[in-house]
Amino acid sequence: MTEQLADRDVVKTTYADVFVAGGGPAGVCAAVAAAREGAVTVMAEQGGCAGGMATQGLVGPFMTCYDKDGENMIIKGLFSEIVDRLVKKGGAVHPSQVRMGTAFTSWIQTGHDHVTPFDPEILKLVLDEMLEEAGVQVLYHTAFTEPVMENKKVTGVILHSKSGFERINTKVVIDCTGDGDVAYRAGVTCELGDEKRNLIQPATLFFRICNVDTGAVEADIEKNKKNFYRKDGVNYRSFHWWVSEARKHGDWNLDRVSIGLYRGVKPDEWFVNTSRVMGIDSTDNRSLSKGEMEGRRQAEEILNMIRTYIPGCGDAKLMSTASVLGIRESRHIRGEYRLTLEDILQGKVPDDRVLVCSNSVDVHGRFGPKSNEYLTIENGEYYGIPYGCLVPCDVDGLLVAGRCISAESQAAGAVRVMPPVMAMGQAAGIAAALSVKTGKEARHISRELLKEKLIENQVYLGESNEAARTD
Predict the structure, then answer these.
(1) Helix, strand and coil percent figures for the chain, each rounded to 5
(2) Is 445 exposed, middle or buried (0-12, 13-18, 19+ CB in 10 A)?
């Protein structure tokens, strides 16, 4: 605890076996998994609901959870349970029913087979129910401020809310902040974006629209689908013909050439993934504030263009803009293992994997504002993420799950999406609970025991794990 924050400033001190910082996709799964394993678990989230990018950020759909060829669902466990609960409430279309090249994928083919459209409002309810059922103590409107350290071990956290400063003493902290805030403040070495290229992936402010004539939208796509192409790292896909027309008439000034429209669960509702805000550092409040203001400005321009030019959208209504900016990249911690681009392209499946996935490398803005780098697996159907990516170097009492795990920038561009992030959270939660039960540091728990527990919880770990492979 810093000298500035004296003990007298802490209004309350409590205890938890496991503390989870952040209630996004990784954080919810980490908290539920730890609590189901019997650990006294507290989760703090600075927003007013769980789900993070999926709810507050309106990022949808969930990207693929299948293998490269779209034959088998390979990200299961808590992710699969969440999807099933959503489907039961009418809040999702099961990924088995969604194929590439359709309105649900913004007509994208490669890497987009079996995505999961979902309703973020219903997702909020599902996540609340799961947290309550598991017995997680949930603290919304509560921000992590700093770790409590003993030598190089995290032994607690300081939180801040309207109640004031609160200290939670704990055995294991799981950093699911997305930005690696706990790890960074605990002294873990981190890289911000791709420091060699001086590049951070651009941010996007998502928004949702309704009252769309979906038949007219799809008819326009069908008429122009043969005009999709890629040139100089830039994708000319859905509605690039209308973007060109709008630019000619002075109605489009953004460095984007296509409109990313993803159909929602209801046929007249669509997610818009188009804005691009360059150079935003989400670890800096001034940069983040500037980015959110620019994101809303861009959203207005995009919506005006959609209404004016795209058939079937003349009467489209704005449902909401995201309450937080969609961040693709910030810090990457240095862990016991660093996931590489080669690991992904070659389909490496290490012995200590905690999940397997097939998500493609997708680095936005890599060759300029209009561009992206998109690379798929070259060998095999999937690759594995080793436990060491979740274990920070040098600092004990801490695990990390989410987009800030130990990975090269390009590799992180593949595993930053929500299905693998949820699987990371589940693995971290189970590992933390095992650390508490065995009295061993998280970095020293038995990898075989962790693997057994993951399989018990319906996590698919590859060909040797047939128990969790059923569709």
Answers:
(1) 35, 25, 40
(2) buried
Cis ω before 25 (30° cut-off from 0): no
**pTM score over 0.90:** yes
Instruction: Provide the β-strand partners of residue 271.
Output: 208, 262
Which residues make Cβ contacts (< 8 Å) with residue 160, sequence separation at least 6?
A: 142, 143, 145, 166
Residue owning tokens 């890289």: 191
Distance CA 313, CA 303 (A): 9
- Only one residue has tokens 């294991």, namely 172
Give φ, ψ of 262 to 5 degrees: -120, 120
Distance (Å) of CA 224 to CA 217, 238, 299, 339, 456: 11, 8, 25, 39, 48
Residue among 324, 336, 338 at smallest CA distance from 415: 338
> Tens digit of pLDDT for each residue in 121-154?
999 999 999 999 999 999 999 999 999 999 999 9
pLDDT at position 468, please?
Answer: 42
Q: Which residue has the tokens 């309450």?
A: 323
What domains appear along the chain, each with residue ranges and CATH number?
7-198+329-468 (3.50.50.60), 207-321 (no CATH)
Sign for the pseudo-dihedral over CA of 255, 261, 262, 266 = positive
Q: Which residues pair with 400 in a beta bridge?
A: 175
62-121 pLDDT tens trace: 999 999 999 999 999 999 999 999 999 999 999 999 999 999 999 999 999 999 999 999
Phi first, then psi, for residue 311 (nearest 5°) are -55, 140
Overall average pLDDT of the 212-222 stretch: 98
